[in-house]
## 1
Amino acid sequence: MKLDESVKAASLTPTAELLQDAGQRALAYVQSVHDRPVNVSTQALQGLNAFRHSLPDAGLDAREVLRRLDEAGSPATVATTGGRYFGLVIGGALPATIAANWLTTAWDQNACFRWTSPIAATLEDVALRWIGDLFGLPDDIGGAFVTGASMANFAALAAARHALLSRLGWDVEAKGLYGAPELRVVVSKETHVTVSKALSMLGLGRERVIVVPTDHQGRMRVSELPELDEQTIVCIQAGNVNTGDFDPAREICRLARKAGAWVHVDGAFGLWALANRQIDTLTDGFAEADSWATDGHKWLNVPYDNGIVLVRRAATLRAAMSLNAAYLAEGDATEREPSHYTPESSRRARGVDIWAALLNLGRDGVAALVERTCRYAGMFAQGLEASGYEILNHVALNQVLVSFGTPEMTRAVINRLQAEGICWCGGTVWQGRVAMRISVSSWATTDADVQTSLRAMIRAAETCAP
Ligand SMILES: *Cc1c(COP(=O)(O)O)cnc(C)c1O
């Protein structure tokens, strides 16, 4: 076959037919995901061998490509969107966001500049304003849509580095860190690994930090904070991945403000609690920080590749992330140019997914999602405790830590539960104790899912009992 004939053969199916096929397959997946096992069967794992062949010379018809993806691929997915996946802090994907994401993919917009995609830039503006409003943040915040909280932590800490060093007369973007005044970074013992990674990428050093001890809930002990000054960045947390608890932001922000230090919040999932005014004992003071990192793809339940960075003054983030120094000389632009706020240049229009979730849920819907998932976490804790198992954390949010007795016993229960596939929970070690962690973060989880999963947990524990 000639080269161009071979290429033609690869596009036999008309686009309309192909997209309808994709729609039907996706619908079938979404409709069945709730009732299938959460884990991946051995058979499905073996089925992945179908993909392990060499690259063919001649391309395949697009419909055949899709058929292969669905037939061997769909069964090998972990059913994280089904409502009974409680591992890590995962969340599902609201139907409105899947649909908006599809249409956006068809647009194939480059969200780099306003002129490469006016719609992407506009919806980013709108979504940022809505998020700021939802969290009760100041009006002049700047922000950007990045891949996840890892990159949001990176971008926010780059802004912090810029702000502190420029005040000391050092242009870190131009000159780098060699010869710069030294910055101190304060973290807690419970700081997320992605904050450490961001510090390493920024030349601030993973290990060059002051580590503040934490209490029984993993909260920073304010009394053990070092003296703060204008050369210090303090990294605090909204939502400990184990206990769900928050650092005492009010007091830390007060001390930092007085000293001229910068406070950065890693709120990958927990920051969304700011949308629910009923849990303001936890969220108190977080709006006083200088920068925030959060995820859309966890508690807000939008598809993956959706993180958000927010910085108190837009100009600070822009100075740290701008594509070129010349742009800065132009002074304040009237319109936000997306590429000047992110580590990336070309990227997908990920702000659309978040805009869709917020419009679909509304202010009350976000608060209700937070309330419901926290209530379910409480139900898990109560149910397990009533059956005689020990809850290791005060369930302040949506995370539950349970011990089924000895470390071996707890591990055995986790393994059994995972193999059975009715629900899925992971293991963790909390303050030296082996625990099973239950994270309730999906919009799709129902009362019935909680009851079914609770029964499965108790059954697994009884079966594993010596
Ligand atoms: C998940 C998480 C992160 C990292 O977020 P990604 O979206 O995986 O990059 C950072 N901090 C906390 C507290 C998290 O839960």
## 2
Amino acid sequence: MPTPLFDTYAPPSQIFERGEGVFLIERSGDKYLDFISGIAVNALGHAHPKAVAALKAQADKLWHTSNMFTVPGQHELAAKYCQNSFADRVFFTNSGTEAIECAIKTARHYHFVNGRPDRYRIITFTGAFHGRTYGGINAGGNPAYLEGFGPRMEGFDSVPFGDHDAVKAAITEETAAILVEPVQGEGGVRALPDVCLRGLRQLCDEHGLLLIYDEVQCGAGRTGKLWAHEWAGRAAPDIMAVAKGVGGGFPMGACLTTEAAGAHMVVGTHGSTFGGNPLAMAVGNVVYDELTAPGFLEHVVDMSNFLHQQLHGLADTHSAKVEEVRGKGLLVGLKLKTGYVNKTLAKHARDNHLLIGAAGDNVARMAPPLIIEEAHARQAVEALDKALTALEQG
Ligand SMILES: *Cc1c(COP(=O)(O)O)cnc(C)c1O
């Protein structure tokens, strides 16, 4: 289709008109099982009745005032985020990469107000993804996303994912923080072992560094805990960026911090016109309430276990094509063997009315709505079985 749009995306031919729970539906009525959910966004599925009702009710009352004025929904949701977590402070954003920007600025400013403006460097990891702002691509360090956009930004030191000794060696007098995704999404659906997260926490304590988690993709109940790092026990961050699932499909994100790491961000240090607007807060509060409702996260764990078990069976059946099953909770990857292409598998899956995504490292990525039932997992695995059978070398 000729279009004035940037050619930054190459979508398939399907055009979805509506969503119902775990399904996306074309105008023709053709129904697809959605196992990517807007890339880990539609945590409650499509058109969740409570989220729809909250958004409609807010739309009738007030859309936007900017942060010149108090937005009560922000206070409500921030209090919820802080209730059962490491966090004491919250800044609301419109997206994940803005939450990362806020996290980076907050970490550097912390050292600045503590008389150490020279501590500004941030240790990051290979395969990381932190969004597409200038700060985000520089923190992510993916050469493909950096090339052609001018000089690289100073202050990021990338080390191999999961290499504790390399992190240690990269710490200098100028290091301000360590930034890591507890489960890498974009980079290939790789979970950092719990012991590594605890190791990073320890290193940060020893050296006076701030630990920043990017839970934009792996947070919001995706792994079966509200926040992915909770699995690791004593590994709480000082700062955490969230987005994607927390808005359930309404664009929103947040930067959460401890009191010490965030209290210095006062009037004039940061801001956003739209961040935390009443519409976003109306939905964000519903999403939080659903994720923390009794039994919700237990269901996510049950579904994760079932899906992983099914996928391991599938990987055995197609061992010539599938190298391994990866990920945590309902953020799952199938790494394909050399010669087979993840995007081609996604196409064959679509031919079988299943929507999945692709990630780095030749991984087919799945991030279904958290409300899936066993029957949906079975349906997905059946479609993947057909898709893998159809997958030819090339
Ligand atoms: C998607 C993502 C981002 C960027 O979020 P946007 O809302 O696209 O800006 C940052 N970090 C991680 C881990 C992500 O998965």
## 3
Amino acid sequence: MNASVEKVTPYDQFNLPIPEDHFPEQGMSARAAAALVISEEWTDTNPMLNMSSFVTTYAEPEAMETAHRNIFKNYIDHDMYPHLFAMETRMVKWLHQLWNGPKDVEPYGTATVGSSEACMLAGLAHKWNWRTRRQSEGKDATRPNMVTGGNVQIVWKKFLRYFDVEPRIVPLKPGNYRLTAEDLDQYVDENTIAVVAIAGQTFTGEDDDIQGIHDWLDAYEKKTGHSIPMHIDGASGGFVNPFLYPDYKWDFRLPRVQSINASGHKYGLTPPGLGWVIFRERKVFNEELVFYVNYLGGEMPTATLNFSRNGFQIAVQYYQFLRLGFDGYKRVMQHTLDNAIALRKILVDSGYFTIMNETQRIPVVAVTLDSKITKFNEFDVSNKVREKGWVLSAYSMPPNAEAVKSLRVVVRPHINRNVAQILGNDIIGACRFLETHGGNATPPKLHAHATEKSSPAKC
Ligand SMILES: *Cc1c(COP(=O)(O)O)cnc(C)c1O
């Protein structure tokens, strides 16, 4: 054996340089490559401690095995993986029923990469439906607009810009962080393709005033003859409301609600890469948006923005629905909410914080420092608890509530009461330290682009 080869130990291999600006010329051993990748992962946040994200970070071993078994299945290839497609189709019906869709219709919907793709598809359907209707009435169909609150997630601003729909964004104000019917008369008109209302918003976790908006649109139709549909962005609330608040009408029970999206990878409890969009009935998803592609021996409809994508999330979502059932989701969401309420109480009782979301639906705790605290701000608290490993979002609210800064904790199912207590203590410990030593964090400058300055990308 060549002596020089023997002398190359793993220590030498792990120390190989990584090229910055050219493609690696020669390969290396599997162990060396893995060691290099792992060493770059070390200082990334531990996903479990990422309290700023809604996205699932825990799954049972059986769910992980399901993911591994399915990881090489291309979702779009229905011909090769008809049973993965059958799982998706069945889950579309389940969600349509869970969200109280009418019984006598053909449910329609699809799995997507996340709520973003789901929102885009819903937005497109409403744009197409609006245009078809306007054209059939011989009216101008060139100036579509969409009405949302200033609390919308960035995806809606993307949709509006990418698909050329005029943004009509109702600003927030200090003390009110949700879309209500109050100012709608200044925003809604005959060119409004839909009003988007959120169930479980990213900033404070609250729901928009869905019923109030619905009633306002009913009155508007009576007055003007313009019937305007609603889309519900239930990215988070879609997997909380049905289980915890069965009597609360946020969904297809309201006739104007024509489409709903939710993130399977948030409270749907699937690893990242899954969203859902469900339509009230088949005809809401405009047929012109459906493509029929030739697969081996057959025609397959496709109506997603992506073509190839990983299919494992669908199998895992199916596992979770079967594993937990309605009863299991209800229990998981209840304990998660209880832990959020416990954390909220610890923070409010400390005297440092005021709660921002009076109505607590999804398990999000959004607080702002009490106005008497001047020596440090929410960004200082976020930086300080980072020393303990926690990642907490601090942010300035969107216009016209920019003066309000917020600290947000997204409580997810893996946070048990014990961990909520430790986190609460660490946050209060950080406040005590900052009270003595002062803070110096300045809120990050927001992007200056006119339509985007209100959009920190909250997930
Ligand atoms: C997370 C979120 C989105 C975007 O969803 P992804 O699943 O991250 O693509 C849209 N709207 C709301 C309200 C969200 O919370």
## 4
Amino acid sequence: MQAAAAYGLLGEKHLLAAFIDMDGIEKTVASLRAAFDDHFTHAFAAKANCLHRVLALLRQCGMGCEVASPGEFAQARRAGFLPHEIVLDSPAKTLGEIEQALRLGIALNIDNFQELERVTALMATSSSNSEIGIRINPQVGVGTIAATSTATRTSKFGIPLEDAGQRTRLIQAYIERPWLTGVHTHVGSQGCSLELIASGVAKVVTFAEEINAAVGRQQVQVLDIGGGLPVNFASDEFTPGYDEYAALLRTHAPALFSGAYRVITEFGRSVVAKNGFIAARVEYTKTSGDRHIAITHAGAQVAARTVFLPEMWAIRLSAFDAQGRFKRGEKIPQDVAGPCCFAGDILAHERPLPLLEPGDFILAHDTGAYYFSTPFQYNSLPDAAVYGFHIGDDHEVRFELLRAEQSIEHVVETSGLFK
Ligand SMILES: *Cc1c(COP(=O)(O)O)cnc(C)c1O
């Protein structure tokens, strides 16, 4: 924070910026790769942070990329991912997207039986190098956050394994289609326990073995077990770690580690969340009904989930002075508000912090995934600048611009101004 203030990346002219610890990402990916055997391929879920330099760095670190839209696909390609390093998972793939994926040899997970018919028709007239799987919903239930629990009984994702007749219909589908060589699942994300996730993965792995037994050979060769490792938003500790999750999978689904299958993972949030933060200037402070309120420049535009679901997505905040020095002193409950014009635009309610003053900065921790990288265009607020940083052995901080602050001219253009 001191370096950012000293370099003028934050201040009166630069009210809001986000930062990514590039060395931290490398370390996180190293811990991910160390936790699993070499027959695991780790595809980063692009929606968690689709910034070009972040994707490029993750590729350098040896990750693949999971995409779910034409935009994410284009971002992955531009970041250097080769077609065979990409997995396409959208639940709403158009015929055109499926055709393109099959033509380029991109791995593809089919979401439903109608999509299966489309792929079947295309596979009847042309060949493809794509690894093709079906997304299976193991229906293991809901975590503490419904919106990120994808393996509920009535989830919109995948084919529900426990619904009447589906298991038989799925097995028949594999028997009739030798090109169906994968199964896919993604049980859920934040709010799901490791046990819940591992039990969902285990069910789908067992089902893959059931398919192979029914076919009479190892037709299913790829097990894509999704992402979803929950992130600790309460402290600096990286818990649970990938090694803990891997250990749990070893007991729940040992086949993943037998070497008989190629295994793909799709971690997003856990790779980047703790390697990023948002910093914003405090513009004004006041009291209202005895409540201390600080009006800052970080609100729903960079922290939509926290603002709209404050209990479920609480994040840690720290206070810094205008020079970027950590603020100490008596902690007083304060509402830390954003700049948006709706009453709920609050990053934290009654949060005990040293009393904020105009010109101070507020830092929102663990926001490297699904925050500033996917902004919400409310009040026509510009997308924040994003800087990567490295800290040298001499404690010198080096910044690199990852995304420029959106100009007001560009904001106007995106409102439909034709030139
Ligand atoms: C979002 C998503 C992921 C990544 O989830 P995280 O919780 O960010 O790890 C992986 N796979 C699929 C299919 C997803 O939709």
